[in-house]
Amino acid sequence: MRSFGLLDRFLRGTGDGLASTTRQATERKKENMTEQENARLQASKITGVIDFIERSYRLGLWTTFGGKPVLEHDLGVMLAYEDLRQICLQFLAADKTVLSELEITINGESDGRKLRDSANGVELPLLDRRAVADCRITVQRNGNEDQYRHLLKGSWSRVESLRRRPSGSYVSEHAARITGGRQTGIFRVADESRHRLVVTQTGTRGYAFAEDLDLGAQRVFIHSRFAPAELRLHPGMHVTALVIQTPRGLQARNVQRA
């Protein structure tokens, strides 16, 4: 387990502070700085995604939590102590059930693969904002919090497990891409938020476009990777999907035959 001194340097953002001229000490210092920088970077990636969702839906999250810097700081501490396994942003209905959530899992080191990002950004699910009554952030840890609890700025406490509504899910390629696979994200969205689509155009390599009957949008992009293998898209076909907003426009995930 890393010592308090490493975390103290992480929080101050300073160097090792040891005037050692040995090669072993120099290499140890470089390793520690790399770990510190990686903890900060991974924390900033997580909070960046959460902040984008917060600004998109105006959830009021930072008012209740204490601000984005507080979350980024605390996640950095947890990561530096290798104690953060998972973080979850949940959208709650008035009855305290979970309407939608983004679950980010910490995987550790990058495997070096070239990762795809079909959305070219955060895959924001389209929800009825009026149905969202509250939101919260939860974390799962490895049980080492006694070693760094005094370093945290946020007020962390145990929370009850809430019932999730029947839902569909899709993987966040963006979360994996921007972290080199060190993090993976999964969005879960209640079935009541599924959209009715009619395929209007198909192309080669599994591409298609559809009209969203609920939004009146004409160009929702579909790819066969996000549909069951046995589903063959053709013009006029009715399907349902979780529709997401992306920098490339509307796209469909978790496509199912209607």
Structure explained in plain terms:
The structure is a single chain. The chain is of the alpha+beta class and 258 residues long. The protein has two domains: 1-10 and 26-192, HORMA domain (Cell Cycle, Spindle Assembly Checkpoint Protein, Chain A); 194-258, Nucleic acid-binding proteins (OB fold (Dihydrolipoamide Acetyltransferase, E2P)). Helices cover 26% and strands 30% of the residues. It has five helices and eleven strands, in the order ααααβββββαββββββ. The strands form two sheets. Strands 3, 7, 8, 9, 10 and 11 form a six-stranded antiparallel beta sheet that branches. Strands 4-1-2-6-5 form a five-stranded antiparallel beta sheet. Strand 7 (195-202) and strand 8 form a beta hairpin. Helix 1 crosses helix 2 and helix 2 packs antiparallel against helix 4 (68-80). It is globular and about 60 Å long.
Descriptive labels:
258 residues, alpha+beta, OB fold (Dihydrolipoamide Acetyltransferase, E2P), six-stranded antiparallel β-sheet, 11 strands
C-alpha-based Rg, rounded: 21 Å
The total domain count is 2
Question: CATH superfamily membership of the largest domain, which one?
Answer: HORMA domain
* CATH architecture heading of the largest domain: 2-Layer Sandwich
Main beta-sheet annotation: 6 strands, antiparallel
The number of distinct helices, counting runs of at least 4 residues, comes to 5
Strand content: 25-35%
Principal-axis shape equals globular
Using the coordinates shown, work out and report the CATH topology of the largest domain: Cell Cycle, Spindle Assembly Checkpoint Protein, Chain A
Tell how many strands the DSSP assignment holds: 11
Unreliable stretches covering 5 or more consecutive residues: 1-21
Mean pLDDT: 88
* H/E topology pattern: HHHHEEEEEHEEEEEE
Would you tell me the structural class of the helices and strands? alpha+beta
CATH C-level class of the largest domain is Alpha Beta
